[in-house]
Amino acid sequence: MTEPRPFPAQALALPGPYLLFLGDTVEPGYAKTAFGLRDWAPERCLGEFAIDGATVSTGLPSMTPAEARAAGARALVIGVANAGGFIPQAWQAALVQAMEAGLDIVSGMHMRLRDIAAVRDAADRLGRRLVDIRQPPPGIPVGSGRKRSGQRVLTVGTDCALGKKYTALALARAFKARGLDADFRATGQTGILIAGGGMPLDAVVADFAAGAAELLSPDADAAHWDVIEGQGSLFHPAYAGVSLALLHGSQPDVIVVCHQPGRCGMLGHPGYALPSIEDAIEMTLALGRRTNPGIRCGGVSLNTSRLDATDAAALLASESARLGCVVADPIRGGAAFERLVDACLA
């Protein structure tokens, strides 16, 4: 079988294992990088480190940088993905402390580590690496809209940080378990850290974002599947542009709509209500037909982490009956998730 053309960027060579830095975060949705690494790359995560004010925890052992270094850690990974991707001044002393303990710093923030004088000076003085993940490769073209060979699934959502990455990772793993040729294609900093490469789509100049999505998922064998990590939401007042560029550039044959029951307001913008699942399906298909007229919805992924097993199973069944499509929680797995895999591949 023909292998897909490799993504035109060097694979990341990151120093690990990691100590996950949570800063002073109080919103679990903003700690998605830490949670993603804990759940999908646990062998690389030794513990967590936070500063005063933090209320979020991954459940990993709490360690100082010195303790983590003694346990074998080689890097502090900023496990936060806040609105705007900035590094507050309140974090700088902790980052310097980590470097003084012998750790390199890995960041997926928009703010560049070397643009922070205290961090840059400490790294130069101590000989530590500063690694910024959100670095698009050079030479990204404008999107062409050309239909590419191969097959593609894109996860989309009613909001940010509610399961698009987890759903894509679970689907890619399930496809491979069935013997299919499949790749997970990362589009955000957490996915890139997990996969070891990808395209930081929200760091690409807007005119080139659709072209970046095309590069990420190139021509492939007709039987090959790319499972593409979604970003933001077409309904989000801040991030809809990224979501639309990804939709047009990835040209998905199948979408899976992700939603978290019980969430009412947009993350970071509580004055904006979430759309219904039906509206998300309708809008995504209407806009996606611009570059792939054959686009279809494979089903719905619900993040039922706030529910017990009995209530989650009942909700999945009732929503499937109400919407007339497969509804599953990929993290819970089971028969519902196998039906979602079937529907995507149908």
Automatic annotation (TrEMBL):
Q: Which species is listed as the source?
A: Thermomonas carbonis
Q: Which Pfam families match?
A: DUF1611, DUF1611_N
**Family matches, as InterPro entries:** DgcN-like, DgcN-like_C, DgcN-like_N, P-loop_NTPase
| D-glutamate N-acetyltransferase-like N-terminal domain ranges (all copies) | 57-136
Reading the lineage from the top rank, the first entry is Bacteria
**Domain D-glutamate N-acetyltransferase-like C-terminal, first and last residues per copy:** 142-336
Name of protein: DUF1611 domain-containing protein
Q: Where does the chain cross the membrane?
A: none
